[in-house]
Amino acid sequence: MSEHRLAEVFVELADTLVADFDLIDFLHRLTVRCAGLLDVAAAGLLLADQRGALRVVAASTEETRLLEVLQLQTDEGPCPECFHTGQPVTVVDLADAADQWPRFVTEAHRIGFASVHALPMRLRTEVVGALNLFDTRPGRLSPRTIQLGQALADVATIGLLQARTISQSSMLAEQLQAALNSRVIIEQAKGVIAERHQIDMEQAFLRLRATARAGSRRLSDLSRAIVDGSELV
Question: At the top level of its lineage, which domain of life is listed (predicted)?
Fold first, then answer.
């Protein structure tokens, strides 16, 4: 990757730290940028809610989002382990983890993934989530790629723990919970769009996101309007 492109991405992500921003869109952009910059097939992101339970908030593809959901439903996979230990988890060949995480490995193989790297979203001792990097090729990512992936995860973490809320943990919890609640209404809106236009969920999300960005609106606000029937996409 070019240094110019890398700088552009960090500026793009850091820019959200100084203004009111759409958190769900920010985290989705992070997963897409991670997949592109790190040359992996897909990326997913999980955050802890107010009770400390992990929730899926973003993924670069719809299939990856569903795989992340499966990890939480079965408590199987590298992302929950990464979150609970606060340490990176590397699975260079998912076939070797079939006994440990049978349902997760089966579904990951069905999608076409062969390896996964999970990176903690951590600031000092506080772990707020984990970033999953999936690839269709077995093997380790290079140390430089892992370092860059962790840097992107760190940027996202700092975005969540902004200076205006870092000294007030309750405000942070409310911000994260609001984002997690927004994810629910966004999923409902995706379903409405998918059914109305006979398209799949990934295409529905792309259409939803494009409409929100074109109108400079939050994904959650537009989603509520679609779900309650006051607006069409």
Answer: Bacteria
